[in-house]
Protein: Importin-7/11-like TPR repeats domain-containing protein
Amino acid sequence: MVRQPHIELVLLLDPDLESSGALFVGSYILQLILHLPSQMAQHIRDLVAALLRRMQSCKLSGLRSSLLVIFARLVHMSAPHVEQFIELLVSIPAEGHPNSFAYLMVEWTKLQGEIQGAYQIKVTTTALALLLSTKHAELGKLNVQGYLIQSTAGITTRSKAKTAPDQWTMMPLPAKILALLADALIEIQEQVLVGGDEDSDWEEVQEADVETDEALILSSCAIPRGRPSHDYLDAMAKAFDEDQDDGDDDDLLSGADPLNEINLVNYLVDFLKKFSHSEGAIFSHLLQSLTKSQHDAIQMVLKQ
Structure:
């Protein structure tokens, strides 16, 4: 019986604890959030501060990703007042950064592409959309890692990588979030185009709406021409669920969370439509920071 979960969490999130010893703390905290929300709400500031300290001391990417999922779930819990959660993060100091919100978003935007599992991807991707929808002033203050600057110096050896590490562009946080939402769409589109079997719903859509040229199918920006059909979006959703059904998810955890019922494709389409309509000028400005494939992926779903 968990009488004082916050005390156990303080111990498990001790920044001096070996990362391997806290590997499953993310799942444990999510269980507490889902099953004891009122008790956890009383200690939200302490929990957030402990999570941030643990992230800054963490060496394992798997643990860092699991902690990001917790933050994403807390974003959802704060809805429809997500701006209050942002302000909570801003009020908590973070070593080497203006505040904890700045630190979290720098790390989140770097690691989002490494998140694995259908449930985890749904929670983090939709949480990013919620953050963007706030249009909070703190979002506009931050620049985060953008795109990799390709090196022309030939093959990168291990020693060369140490002396000349990868260089990245910097981009405004709102633009980066939109880029990550576009990347989620691109990844699902690629699953449909490359991973579908011959009897899938996508085959019929492909015959009608998609160029059959092999190079286009393998291209990251390959999308149907013209107006995408509902069948195409349904095929995207099906491909996402099938691709992520790899047995790695915590079935007990995801099954207990209503967010697991989210249709990620429909969610992103709905969000992008509403955001583009309500914030036309901002949306158009953010699109200018995206790559062609990201821009095309978003424009495709907006035509639906």
Q: What stands out?
A: The radius of gyration is 20 Å. The longest strand covers residues 143-149.
